Amino acid sequence: MANHVKKKTRVLAVDDEPSILELLKTALNALGTYDVTTASSVDDAIQTLERQEKPFDCLLLDIQMPDVNGITFCAELRKITEYRKTPIIMLTAMSDRDYIDRAFAAGATDYLTKPFDLLELRSRLGTASMLIEEQGRAKSSIEVAKALKDELETNLHFNLEDPIAIDDVDNVLGYAEFENYVIQLSQGKLFNSFATAVKIANAEALYAKLSSSAFRAVLHDVAAAISRLVRKDGYMVCYRGNGVFLSISHRRNGPLHPGAELHLNQIAATIMSRHAERQDVKLIVGEAASMRAITKYGSLYALNKAVDNVENRVVSETDVMSLPSHVVMHRSRSTAHAHLERRAYETVLDDLLRDEPRLRSNGT
Length: 364
What we know:
By secondary structure, this protein is of the alpha/beta class. It is built from 14 helices and eleven strands. The strands form two sheets. Strands 6, 7, 8, 9, 10 and 11 form a six-stranded mixed β-sheet that branches. Strands 2-1-3-4-5 form a five-stranded parallel β-sheet, sandwiched between helices.
């Protein structure tokens, strides 16, 4: 029987500290599943990228470097087709919230502060590797779909519960990037943040009525409306599935709150008026949920609380009671909602194992 050798994950590490580069190269190469290339500056990294026959699978970037900082480099990488979706992990000593916000807004997938735990880095890289595999499978599926039927609708089909990615909207993160952002905030003990959910009240009816591409366009326009309302304050947004968007703000009385519903709906209507077939969309804003938690799982549960808050408002709003009853009362837990709970429990277990090395050794 032929041996199947797992393909190594090709990593480019960029840092101006030789000791960090040596540590990364030695430690990750020793795991046997990574092939690490290093660069001591952005210029060096660019030259390295240009020499490659195939793109790297993952990039580790320092923020503070003498020529160009890692955040700027991350933003430039996202403009390159081959690196639009490549996992980028920031490895930096900068723990200020401003740097975290700017890094994720520039397209970072994850953020790890120095001095970092090699076990934690391995865990983050493992998550990045799974993301690479999922993207590869998605690409293969699209290629198969095109071969079977060259129709856009086939390629764009998704379920209502799916937390699909929304591209090219400022401060809108993917599902995994958003969770990493929230966890990084909690690790930095930045407890003055709040999660607010926005729901398309008639999402189920629109999904049933529209084609996949038309519904995706609605989601894109709603994301653009939320972004326009909050991006001046640097707040991050993510689509979670079931017509629900989440935003993280750093003050309770930010621009996104139930009293801002009218303004938000006006912005959305203006954006949607560009389309020939305008859709009537009703947006509901939930009460903010405090993320004042000591642990990472507490922050993840705050996201669930924000989703529950907006679902409760959808049911209680008298102006949406005219919608079909199955639209108003249908409150099934989306796959994204269930994943939040599972991720929270996994985070509790991870913290427990980290705090009690004996448990980790007994479990292996």
